Amino acid sequence: MRTPYDILIRPVLTEKAVNQNEKENKLVFEVALDANKVEIKKAVEEVFGVKVKEVKTMIVKPKRKRVGFNKPGFTKKWKKAIVKIESDKPINIAELV
């Protein structure tokens, strides 16, 4: 049995994610690659104590990066989850991290 902290790896704190949190009550997380939507929903509800409306997930493809002298490398492949919560005020993730 995995804990919620095994499923939710870290919050994504980009400008777009913060705007989604403030305007649409959406939280963005990096989650485990093998986590499904039901596990993500239960993990967010347990950790933050909020009711989750919907969960959208996507796999972020690795990007090509230069490593060393003209040697190709790649960033890691990861899974992103956008979680919409049923709340009238946004949760400030930056304070919780």
* DSSP strand content: 35-45%
What is the second-level CATH architecture? Answer: 2-Layer Sandwich
Shape descriptor: globular
**Order of helical and strand elements:** HEHEHEEEEH
CATH class: Alpha Beta
Q: Give the fraction of residues assigned to helices.
A: 25-40%
**Overall domain count:** 1
Low-confidence stretches: none
Distance between the termini: 24 Å
Count, helices: 4
Radius of gyration: 15 Å
CATH superfamily: RRM (RNA recognition motif) domain
- For the secondary structure, the number of strands is 6
Main β-sheet description: 4 strands, antiparallel
Strands of the biggest beta sheet: in what spatial order? 1-2-6-3
Protein traits:
97 residues; two-stranded antiparallel ribbon; alpha+beta; 36% strand; single chain; 4-stranded antiparallel beta sheet; globular
Give the helices and strands, then pairings.
Blueprint: H1 4-7, E1 8-11, H2 15-24, E2 26-31, H3 37-48, E3 52-60, E4 64-67, E5 71-74, E6 78-85, H4 93-96
Provide a descriptive summary of the structure in words.
With 97 residues, the chain is an alpha+beta fold. Helices cover 31% and strands 36% of the residues. It is built from four helices and six strands. A hairpin with a 3-residue loop joins strand 4 and strand 5 (71-74). The model has no long low-confidence stretch (mean pLDDT 91).
